[in-house]
Specification:
This is STAS/SEC14 domain-containing protein. It comes from Christiangramia forsetii. By secondary structure, this protein is α/β, with parallel strands linked by helices. Helix content is 40%, strand content 27%. The chain has one domain: Transcription Regulator spoIIAA, CATH 3.30.750. The chain has a 5-stranded mixed sheet with strand order 1-2-3-4-5, with helices on both faces.
Length: 117
């Protein structure tokens, strides 16, 4: 199940409690697009629960979506204990004009506070 919540009008929060596949990413993208119908720019919080993994194809699709829609993102917080996912996100966002930060699950409250501003 994919859980969503709003922290503020322009912030969408997503908690992924299954492996992050292309199908799951399609659900995430659909939620973001709905929010973009209301707000020109959004902040996105994505938490991948402990023990869940991301497929390489989902990672590539997510990077493509971020780059092709970067003008609509202000901040993105990725919360996961997957070191390789955090590193991939950090490397892929070097040339992106969006403030992207990764957090460990234990630091989720810090991530929520940061993304809500």
């Amino acid at each position: 199940m994919l859980s969503t919540f709003d922290l503020a009008g322009h912030v969408i929060g997503l908690i992924v409690d299954r492996d992050l596949t292309e199908d799951t990413l399609d659900e995430i993208i659909a939620g973001i697009k709905l929010k973009l119908e209301i707000h020109e720019k959004v902040n996105v919080y994505i938490e991948l629960e402990k023990g869940r993994h991301i497929t390489f194809s989902a990672l590539m699709k997510g990077i493509k979506f971020k780059y092709s829609n970067s003008e609509h993102f202000d901040k993105i917080a990725i919360v996961t204990d997957s070191n390789w996912f955090q590193n991939a996100v950090n490397v892929s966002d070097i040339f992106l004009d969006v403030d992207v930060r990764t957090y460990d699950l234990k630091d989720r409250l810090e991530a929520i506070q940061w993304i809500s501003l």
